[in-house]
Amino acid sequence: MLSFVENRLSERQGMTLHAINAFFVAVTFVVTVRFNQASFGVIRTVSSTLVQCSIIKTWSYAYVNKELRKQSIKRDDKGTSQYPRNVTLKNLCEYMLCTPHVQYKLSYPDRQYPTFRECMRQLFLAFSVICGMTFLAKQFIFPELKLLKHNHFNGTEKVQRFFTVMVFLHLFWILGYFLFYRIIHPTYAILTGMPHVVFEEDWWNSPNMDEFWRLWNRLIYDALKLTVMIPLLRKGFGKRTAKTISFLIAGLLHEIVNTLPLGIYSGAGILVTLFEIPVGYVSTYVTRRFGDEVGNTLIWVYFNINHTVSFVFAYITYDLFEA
Asked: Which residues cross the membrane (predicted)?
């Protein structure tokens, strides 16, 4: 079988099939869950987020092994599985199921497994944050959205309701960030014996969007940088072209996580992500002209308005969570 693949498929065809497979599996899962109404939107979103991570892992595994194959590594270091000896079912399952959402490597540091107390602490934190998010959604966000949708307010009252939604939606977003990047991903890393994996850094003090992209979501940033941006630059593409393609792929991932699970098939996730390219240029200019504090303030204002407008539009247009 391996000889057939090597003789009949080129590198480009093989990598194209890997990409199609990664996205097809994820989209099939999300659409199936949506059509069968398996659960409400939040659970669908969490599930599709985990599927998004599997896309990153699948692509990383394929790309790294492609590079190893090209380099024809023949070293025989003790304790290190070298290509092609690393291409085994055991190695694949260990990376896909028993390793945090990081880029594929031939070897990882010694694993340090958690204590029962650490596991219970993470479980309690997750339960507390989910309760807080549910409280905000049920008591503040959805009631305000219903008033905004079904009542005929004048312009001033609509603006007031909009900013009320913005405040509580911002708190909801912060709790969501804490849930995913301080609890779910780190807990997965702890359970798989790799507690020192970094998923995000000091993004909240970012002076511009470029810095924010590098620090906010290291999972996506590392994946796009190592498997999309750098390979395109090596192929001779310009930096702007490579950046646009990277954002387009990031938009597809946002579409899978943020819109498809909620029954929205408008391409809004892609458009909003691409819109951040010019926003990045503006934020860089503002930072250079007025300083880091003003640039950081601009980022927070942009995200608050962007998230609120997107959520209000989705709620009113698609009857989001009306059932």
From this structure: 15-35, 123-142, 162-184, 263-286, 298-318
- pLDDT tens for 153-173 read 777 888 888 899 999 999 999
| 254 in active site | yes
**Would you give the DSSP letter of residue 38?**
-
Around Cβ 89, how many Cβ atoms within 10 Å? 7
Three-state SS for 56-115 is HHHHHHHHHHHHHHHHCCCCCCCCCCCCCCCCCHHHHHHHHHHCCCCCCCCCCCCCCCCC
CA distance 308 to 159: 12
- Cis peptide leading into 84, omega within 30 of 0? yes
Residue 253 and residue 232 in contact, taking contact as beta carbons nearer than 8 Å: no
DSSP secondary structure string, 255-317?
A: IIIIIGGGT--SSHHHHHHHHHHHHHHHHHHHHHHH-HHHHHHHHHHHHHHHHHHHHHHHHHH
- Residue whose token pair is 């190592």: 226
- Cβ-based neighbour number of residue 69 at 10 Å: 15
Burial grade of 263 (CB within 10 A; 0-12, 13-18, 19 or more): middle
DSSP for residue 229 = I
pLDDT of 310 reads 84
Using the Cα atoms of residue 27, residue 33, residue 37 and residue 41 in order, give the sign of their dihedral.
Answer: negative
- Cα 90 from Cα 109, distance rounded (Å): 18
| pTM of the predicted model as reported, rounded to 2 decimal places | 0.79
Catalytic residue of the set 101, 170, 254, 307: 254
Q: Please, which residues have CB within 8 angstroms of residue 218's CB and are 6 or more apart in sequence?
A: 198, 199, 200, 201
Can you read off the two tokens belonging to residue 286?
């503002």
